[in-house]
Amino acid sequence: MSHFMIPAHVFRGKSALEEAVPYMRKLGNRALIVTGRHVGKSPMMDSLKKCLKDAQIAWFVFDGITGEPTDQMIAEGAALYKKTNSRFLIGIGGGSPLDAAKAIAAVSAHGGSVCALNGIEITGALPKVVAIPTTAGTGSEATRFTVITDREQNIKMLLKGECLVPEIAILNPEFTMDMPKSVTASTGLDALTHAVEAYTSKKADALTDLYATSAVKRIMKYLPAAYQNGFDGTAREEMALAAFEAGVCINNSSVTLVHGMSRPIGALFHVPHGLSNAMLLAECLEFALDGAYERFAALAKGIGAAPREMEAPEAAMAFVMKIRELCKICEIPSLQEYGVSREAFEAAVEKMADDAIASGSPANTRKAVGKADCVRLYHRVFENGI
Fold first, then answer.
1. Distances (CA, A) of 375 to 5, 34, 272, 341, 355
2. For the residues 340-359, what does the mean pLDDT come to?
3. What distance in Å separates the CA atoms of residue 141 and residue 150, rounded to the nearest whole number?
4. Domain boundaries, the chain
5. pLDDT tens per residue, range 155-175
6. What is the pLDDT of residues 74-114, one digit of tens each?
7. CB within 8 Å of 224: residues ≥ 6 apart
8. Are strands 168-171 and 9-12 parallel, antiparallel or unpaired?
9. In angstroms, rounded to a whole number, what is the distance separating the alpha carbons of residues 243 and 141?
């Protein structure tokens, strides 16, 4: 790999928003804010509006992102972007508003339906995006990807392109303080999935390894604390940084089997993305171990889950056991506990396996992965839980 991508500007800390405003001013004098209704009525939104007003930037709000974004939501947002003659976008909220802001930018530049952008490399000049995460996990503030649901096809589309990387990322850990415990868990484990998959991906390199190992260490140490006490400032700050690090990782070395299998579960059973990743994580990693024993062992030893002298296969398994422990601490439910029926799940397994392989992500695993492997893993995850 010779090209390493990160946002042009990253601001961290309690004053990150205020420090970023002069850079936002350079993007234009009219912004469309993309968010959900909860964040749209929050003190965070009040702070953003005040900063924009002080900088003489007019704003318009699209708060129609309810749950994970769909093609219809993107069409509505793009129409408002055009109607208001906006010059750039600000995504504020969890991964869904951030993903939506990037997709709206793409549709605003290319026209047509967002579905037409599925599976192609998006290029060209897009409206710039400012990403302000209020969760610590998706990493959308750092990536060249966005995930949008095609309602007609009942699939989650992965849009990609260097032009989708946000121009500005604003990381204020105070914005994550009021996350519910369940969101803290699912987004934190989403970030962990990003970091582990990036480190064990065929596309990993020395730079992504640095970010990935740092993110894994932070998450394993601080996610339990953030889950148990959402107002632990140190834990929130470390998790915000880890989520960004993990996002940088997948931006450059991509994801593997877990994400490939996770998206169909989300599309068909409406399980939030981070939660479906968490449900799959341990079983998928255990399957992948023998393709990358040394890499999984290095992660285990880096977090203190295995002694330095332990052989790689045993150390790699110790890492998976730590993952299972963390999922239990974070009270991740099984698919059955979440309410997915056995009959519906079994009826969907063949389609999910086809969609997982078609996504391309499993091919990045350092082990051959076929449809039959995905079918077996889906059944194992449903039967065994976490």
1. 34, 37, 21, 17, 11
2. 96
3. 22
4. 9-176, 181-384
5. 889 899 999 999 999 999 999
6. 999 999 999 999 999 999 999 999 999 999 999 999 999 99
7. 326, 329, 330
8. parallel
9. 9
Look-up: residue for tokens 């389609």?
A: 351
- The token pair that represents 228 in the structure block: 């148990």
Residue 372: count other Cβ atoms within 10 Å of its Cβ: 9
Stated pTM of the model: 0.94
- CATH: 3.90.226.10, 1.20.1090.10, 3.40.1010.10, 3.30.70.100. Which one for 181-384? 1.20.1090.10
pLDDT at 63: 97
Helix residue spans in 84-127 (DSSP H): 95-110
Q: Phi-psi category of 92—alpha, beta or left, where left has phi over 0 and alpha has psi -120 to 50?
A: beta
CATH architecture of the domain with residue range 9-176: 3-Layer(aba) Sandwich (3.40)
Can you say how many angstroms the Cα of residue 221 is from the centroid of all Cα atoms in its chain? 20
How many angstroms separate the CA atoms of 164 and 102, rounded?
6
In whole numbers, what is the pLDDT of the chain averaged over residues? 96
**Structure confidence at residue 231 as a pLDDT band (50, 70, 90):** very high
E strands along the chain, which residues? 9-12, 30-34, 58-62, 88-93, 129-133, 145-150, 155-160, 168-171
Angle 257-269/371-384 helices, nearest 10 degrees? 70
For residue 378, report the phi and psi dihedrals to the nearest 5 degrees. -60, -45
List the strands of the sheet with 9-12, edge to edge. 9-12, 168-171, 129-133, 88-93, 30-34, 58-62
Specify the residue for token string 């400032």.
233
Cβ neighbours around 288 below 10 Å, total:
26
Q: Cα–Cα distance between 79 and 73 in angstroms, integer?
A: 10
